[in-house]
C-alpha cells in the first residue's frame, strides 16, 4: 500500500449544542483538505455558527446518538487521506496536528494522543478520573500485551484506509428502543484502540496537552462511563481472541458475535 508523504487531511468534529465553543475552536483549525462537522441534533446554533465561521465546512447529521455514532458518520463522510478526531469543546489543541501527521508519515497506521507521555498533560482531568484511567489503561495493556499510556484519550489521527478494520456499527442500523448500539457511546475510543491493536497495525503515541473545556459541562460520567469502558475491554479481548483463532484456521470472513451490553437510558441520555 502506497501512502502519500503529503497527505490530505480531514478533521472530524462531533458536536451537539457546541455553538459557543465552536466560536473559539473553528478559527484555530489549520487550513486542511476539509473539516467535517457531525451534528447530533443540536438545538442551539451549532450548525449555523459552523457555517458562518467556516463557509466551506461539510455538515453531516449523525444517524443515531452518542459520540461513537457521530464519529462513525464522520469517518464515512471523510475524503482526506488522514482523519483527525477532534472534539468541539476546546480540549484539543490544533497546534498538535502536525505532530500526529508526522507520526503517520513516519510509518504509523494510527497516531494515538497521550496525556501521560513526555510533554503531555491535562488542564482538565480530575485526580479521580486520572486514577480510573490508569487502572483501565493497565488492564488494557495486560489484556492486549501492549505498553500504551493513555487508553481513553480521544485525540487521535489515522490513515483513512484503516476505517474498514475498525468495523464500527453501520450508520444505517437502528438502535433498540431506549438503548445504543455497541460502539455508539463514549466507549468509542476504547473500541477503536482495541481493534487497531487486534489488527496488528502500527501505533505511535503522540504527546498531547488536554486543554480545559471552554464552555458548558462534559457529558462524561466518571463511574458509569468507566464501567462501560471496562465492559468494552473484556468484550474486545474476546473478539480479538476469536479473530485470532479464525486467522490461524485460515478463515478471513468471520464476524464473531460480540456481547452487547444493555445501556441504561438514563445513563446515556446526555451522550
Task: Describe the 3D structure.
One of its GO terms (molecular function) is transferase activity. This is Glycosyltransferase involved in cell wall biosynthesis. Residues 10-161 form the Glycosyltransferase 2-like domain. This protein is an alpha/beta fold and 271 residues long. The chain has one domain (9-268): Spore Coat Polysaccharide Biosynthesis Protein SpsA, Chain A, CATH 3.90.550. Helix content is 37%, strand content 14%. It is built from nine helices and nine strands. It has helices at 19-25, 46-53, 67-77, 97-105, 127-144, 163-166, 188-198, 222-248, 265-268, and strands at residues 9-15, 34-39, 58-61, 82-85, 110-114, 121-122, 156-159, 203-207, 209-210. The strands form two sheets. The protein has a seven-stranded mixed β-sheet, sandwiched between helices. It has a two-stranded parallel ribbon with strand order 6-9. The chain is globular. The protein starts with 8 loop residues before the first strand and ends with a helix.
Strand order of the largest sheet: 3-2-1-4-7-5-8
The percentage of residues in β strands lies in 5-15%
Number of strands: 9
Give the averaged pLDDT, no decimals. Answer: 87
Order of helices and strands: EHEHEHEHEEHEHHEEHH
- The N- to C-terminal Cα distance equals 37 Å
* Biggest β-sheet description: 7 strands, mixed
- Count the helices. How many? 9
User: What is the helical fraction, as a range of percent?
Assistant: 25-40%
Number of domains: 1
Q: Would you identify the regions where 5 or more consecutive residues have pLDDT less than 50?
A: 256-271
What's the shape? Answer: globular
Protein structure class: alpha/beta
Q: Just name the CATH architecture.
A: Alpha-Beta Complex
CATH superfamily: Spore Coat Polysaccharide Biosynthesis Protein SpsA, Chain A
Rg: 18 Å
Amino acid at each position: 500500500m502506497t501512502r502519500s508523504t503529503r497527505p490530505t487531511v480531514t478533521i472530524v468534529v462531533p458536536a451537539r449544542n457546541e455553538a459557543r465553543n465552536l466560536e473559539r475552536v473553528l478559527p484555530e483549525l489549520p487550513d486542511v483538505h476539509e473539516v467535517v462537522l457531525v451534528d447530533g441534533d443540536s438545538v442551539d446554533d451549532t450548525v449555523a455558527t459552523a457555517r458562518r465561521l467556516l463557509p466551506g465546512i461539510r455538515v453531516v447529521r449523525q444517524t443515531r446518538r452518542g459520540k461513537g455514532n457521530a464519529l462513525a458518520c464522520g469517518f464515512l463522510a471523510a475524503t482526506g487521506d488522514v482523519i483527525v478526531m477532534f472534539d468541539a469543546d476546546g480540549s484539543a489543541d490544533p497546534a498538535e496536528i502536525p505532530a500526529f501527521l508526522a507520526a503517520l508519515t513516519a510509518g504509523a497506521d494510527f497516531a494515538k494522543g497521550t496525556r501521560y507521555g513526555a510533554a503531555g498533560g491535562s488542564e482538565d482531568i480530575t485526580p479521580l478520573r486520572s486514577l480510573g484511567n490508569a487502572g483501565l489503561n493497565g488492564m488494557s495493556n495486560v489484556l492486549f500485551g501492549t505498553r500504551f499510556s493513555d487508553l481513553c484519550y480521544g485525540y487521535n489521527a489515522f490513515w483513512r484506509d484503516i476505517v474498514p478494520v475498525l468495523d464500527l456499527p453501520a450508520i444505517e442500523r437502528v438502535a433498540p428502543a431506549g438503548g445504543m448500539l455497541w460502539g455508539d457511546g463514549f466507549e468509542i475510543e476504547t473500541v477503536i484502540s482495541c481493534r487497531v491493536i487486534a489488527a496488528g497495525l502500527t501505533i505511535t503515541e503522540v504527546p498531547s496537552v488536554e486543554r480545559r473545556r471552554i464552555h458548558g459541562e462534559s457529558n462524561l460520567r466518571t463511574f458509569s462511563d468507566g464501567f462501560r469502558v471496562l465492559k468494552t475491554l473484556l468484550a474486545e479481548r474476546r473478539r480479538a481472541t476469536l479473530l485470532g483463532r479464525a486467522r490461524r484456521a485460515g478463515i478471513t470472513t468471520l464476524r464473531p458475535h460480540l456481547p452487547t451490553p444493555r445501556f441504561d437510558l438514563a445513563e446515556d441520555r446526555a451522550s
